[in-house]
Amino acid sequence: MANRKENKSRNVALVIIGFMIIIWTVLGVLSFTDREGYDRPMTTDIIFDGETALKGKQVFQSYNCMDCHTIVGNGAYFAPDLTNIYSDAGPAYLKAYLASPGTYPTESVVNIQLQDLIKKGEIKIGSLDEYYKAYPRAQERVVDRGGIEALMPNLQFTKQEISALIAFFQYTGKLNTAGWPPTVKAKESVIKAEKRKLEEKSGIIRNQSVSTAAHISSSEIDKNFSSGSKIANDMGCIACHSTDGSERIGPTWKNLYGTLITLTTGKQVKVDQHYLKRSILTPDEDIVEGYSEGVMPSYQGVFSDEELQQLIDYIKSLK
Question: Phi and psi at residue 268, in whole multiples of 5°?
Fold first, then answer.
């Protein structure tokens, strides 16, 4: 009797194990089988501005981005999830932000990057309005955060690294993530209230233009200084160039005018009216030693002659 019970139990156990093996085998086969409607992109197939998503993945890993960000459900939760950042914000916003991540880009900077991508044929969009329609959350970011100091450090990405990262984010946006990241379900009022709490707790500076010129008395501010300061803020210049001597993506403007600087070629040039104009309109012509080529966009056709002079006069005054 005992043997019959033991045999019966053994048979049941064998049936269960066999059933589990069948399930495991089927799931294993399905994981390697392409399914209809399932996009399985390759990191080597996606290219942005000459750089592959594979290189972008390597850049993402080399800078330990997952120490702060999550991507496809993996990583830390200190900074936003980046799985769908490309489809949310688009390449122009990402290019503007990654060039100077210490400050969120203004609309003018995003538009400059957009026009550059249009000229290169990297994006089939004709205007900023069309871009906002294609990437509506880019407009939200510009309106809500444009010009605000960010918590992300300035990592001084090169032009190639920025393009590679954008290609990688384009790749992750094409993955079937089975609904990740989850959609937040809460009232708009609750989201705004929590957002404000987090911003206040983080110490985000919401009015950068005030903090930048706070040390200057009203008697020192003339028309060109005031206009030049506004242009520098609106165009996102101070995201890369400090006015207090601190280090950012580009050289500080404090005490810059009239000095001798060394270029990557070893040549020394004097920072005068002509040099500043050339650096603003054709920034890759003279790269200061210790800084990267291709990060600063050209402002050719962006400034009027009067605006350009006002910006130069503002830089001159920072002594």
Answer: -105, 135
pLDDT tens profile 154-183: 888 999 999 999 999 999 999 888 777 777
Q: Say if residues 131 and 125 touch (Cβ distance below 8 Å).
A: yes
**Tokens standing for 221?**
């501010």
Q: Which of 172, 182, 166, 180 is nearest to 39 (CA)?
A: 172
Amino acid at 205: I
Closest among 248, 245, 239 to 291, alpha carbons compared: 248
Torsion angle of the four alpha carbons 302, 305, 306, 311, in this order, in degrees rounded to the nearest 10: 60
Map tokens 């969120």 to a residue: 104
Own/partner pairs, 252-259, CB within 8 angstroms, 24+ separation: 253/315, 253/318, 254/318, 254/319, 255/318, 255/319, 256/315, 256/318, 257/315, 257/316, 257/318, 257/319, 258/319
Cα–Cα distance, 257 to 272 (Å, whole number): 6
Residue closest to 97 by CA, chosen among 46, 124, 137, 70: 137
Find, among 256, 250, 290, 293, the residue nearest to 275 by Cα: 256
Q: Tell me, what DSSP letter sits at residue 43?
A: T
Compute the residue count for the chain: 319
Nearest-angstrom CA–CA distance, 101 and 99: 6
- DSSP E strands in the chain: the ranges are 47-48, 51-52, 70-71, 74-75, 260-262, 268-270
The C-alpha atoms of residue 288 and residue 124 are separated, in whole angstroms, by: 34
Identify the helix (H) or strand (E) that includes residue 22: helix 2-31
Do residues 231 and 311 lie in contact, with contact meaning Cβ atoms separated by under 8 Å?
A: yes
Q: Which residues have a Cβ under 8 Å from the Cβ of 107 and sit 6 or more positions away? A: 128, 142, 146
Kindly report, residue by residue over 200-238, the tens digit of the pLDDT.
Answer: 776 554 544 433 333 333 444 455 567 899 899 888 888
**Residue type at position 172:** T
Q: Give the H or E element holding residue 302.
A: none
Compute the distance between CA of residue 77 and CA of residue 69 in angstroms, rounded to an integer. Answer: 6
